[in-house]
């Protein structure tokens, strides 16, 4: 495996772990949130699961971009929740 592919896999693994952690934190905050937050979560969670599944199977720049995009959406979602 080339060094760049190894670096990409390592970077992707870190991003996936961060995404999983953020997902778990969002679930906790969601428990305290209202119906609007639950509706937004129901639209966002499938995107998270798709990103986790795609990235776990494909270490490509496209999967990394997808993880980054979903992580950004998740950050915005969790910052809008009141803990």
Summarize the structure.
The chain contains 3 helices and no strands.
Describe the structure.
- The chain has helices at 3-32, 35-57, 61-80.
- With 83 residues, it is mainly alpha-helical.
- The chain has one domain.
- Helix 1 (3-32) runs antiparallel to helix 2, helix 1 runs parallel beside helix 3 and helix 2 packs antiparallel against helix 3.
- The longest helix is centred in the first third of the chain and has 30 residues, at 3-32.
What is the fold's blueprint, element by element?
Blueprint: H1 3-32, H2 35-57, H3 61-80
H/E element order: HHH
Indicate the mean pLDDT: 87
Q: Tally the helices: what do you get?
A: 3
How many angstroms does the end-to-end distance come to? 44 Å
What portion of residues is helical?
over 70%
| Percentage beta strand | under 5%
- DSSP E strands, number: 0
Largest sheet: none
User: Which stretches are low in confidence, meaning pLDDT under 50 for 5 or more residues running?
Assistant: none
As a whole number of angstroms, the C-alpha radius of gyration is: 14 Å
Number of domains: 1
- Which shape, going by the Cα principal axes? elongated
Class inferred from helices and paired strands: mainly alpha
Name the features.
83 residues
